[in-house]
Here is the input.
Amino acid sequence: MTIGVLGGGQLGRMMAIAGVALGQRFVFLDPGAESSAGHVGNLRVGAYDDEERLSELARKSDVVTYEFENVPVGSARFLNELVRVYPPPRALEVSQDRLDEKRFFASLGIPTAGFAPVATNDDLEKAVATLGLPAVLKTRRFGYDGKGQWVLRTREDVENAWEALGAASLVLEAFVPFEREMSILAVRSKTGETRFYPLVENEHRGGILRVSYPKSDAWTPELQARAEAHAGRVLAELDYVGVLAIELFITGGELVANEMAPRVHNSGHWTIEGAETSQFENHVRAILGMPLGSTRMVGYSAMINAIGKLPPRDEVLAIEGAHLHAYAKHEAPGRKVGHVTVRAESKRELCDKIEALLPIVDPEGSPRPCR
Ligand code: AMP
Here is the structure.
């Protein structure tokens, strides 16, 4: 089979690395000629809304998926007339708009932060009066890695934010005083078979994911069951096929949904070495209708992102159980250029290895306790 992928970044690259092992071929569409997935599949360079390129992708592919959630929904729908597109374009549509996404969660009984749409200064004033301060003002569309959002703490912040952002479609969210951030990754196959990975705890800095700890010390079977129930409802409602990630806050023992991504996710990279079957392999299995693989953890693991710069390769590889993934991207501040997954046989050993790796892979982060 040939799998067509909208987007040619590291997620597509890792999907192909997994899918090629299953005997599949990949063709990517990305506007960038240097895209990192081009090393592991056929890269077609073109805009996501170029119908000629999209038609070509459909002709070459048995099924199309995406690795980037800001591809135009119109393009996914256009393709869906020509070839099977998974996850369904509606999942893409819901996840592209923070307001629709919050309404969608709420309609399924999944808790979210209080929220209100903001289109005018008057809306903003009313929303602040209802939700209180602090609050988080976000653009409805095209936000990622903490971009397009502002925390409002004072009256002055409210006025400044309106001056800076007034033209965009916005949503105001109540500030969630969360204790931890987690994500649940789920996978559902064309056949309806569904599996969930263990909840992952995620540590962000500057709006960017830095470290993921699957089944951290905050994990409980109750939280896992609740997260699976939430994700299960999303999968069912969307008749979803593929890997889905939902980012959650834990606050006062409750899980509050922040956002979802209809694709493989950075907080699932640990699964390449740390789970019986990686998120990438399971995504490929799901969209082709193959039996899904076990999502069981293999030992203990954690993932550290390399942001802006790759770590010194041999120093990483000299640490037993450490696995380096380099995305073949140009280094630039704030850019995800690789990650390291470390695996161990005990939690204690894992924490020792994380402590050794953090100064090498995330040198700007301060030392912090292992989770
Ligand atoms: P997002 O772009 O929605 O994923 O937000 C990026 C990060 O901002 C999240 O991972 C949180 O750390 C923080 N954040 C977003 N929304 C809220 C909120 N309503 N309350 C508190 N922190 C938030």
